[in-house]
Amino acid sequence: MRDTNKVFHLAIPCKDLDETAAFYEKLGCKLARRYNDRVTFNFFGDQVVCHLDPESIDKAPKIYPRHYGITFADRNEFELVLNLAKDRELPFFQKPMIRFGGRKEEHITFFLIDPANNLLEFKHYHDVTMVY
Question: What sign does the CA torsion over 57, 63, 65, 70 have?
Fold first, then answer.
């Protein structure tokens, strides 16, 4: 595990600051800062910065090779985010599904898509030793 004094930082493009802020705040992410060209969020304890750059938006996003997200060690926390996404009608790119069923690395996962077509994965491994 990482030390609590370290925060992962990710910068991604967005096409509109207002719709980006609305999406991430509905997801439960706290808006940390907003400037004319970017918004910064507390994304489950890490930092996500969405830079205004409409020309860099992926017009036809695919799960692989580019997405980011959270792996939950606690199934209840995974379920809370899943239910929040459903209740707040956030757009799903991939509905909840089981990957690698019956294998040690089996996990449940779903993908959301933000307003700039960035893909966010949320997952929980049944065997916590498979997280890394």
Answer: positive
Question: Which CATH number does the domain housing residue 111 bear?
Answer: 3.10.180.10
pTM of full prediction above 0.90:
yes
Structural domain span for residue 82 = 9-130
Reported as a single tens digit per residue, the pLDDT across 66-110 is 999 999 999 999 999 999 999 999 999 999 999 999 999 999 999
Give the pLDDT confidence of 26-65 residue by residue, as tens digits.
Answer: 999 999 999 999 999 999 999 999 999 999 999 999 999 8
Nearest to 113 by CA among 53, 67, 80: 67
Does residue 79 form part of some domain? yes
Total number of domains constituting the chain: 1
Nearest one of 62, 56, 47 to 8, comparing CA atoms: 47
In a domain, 2, yes or no: no
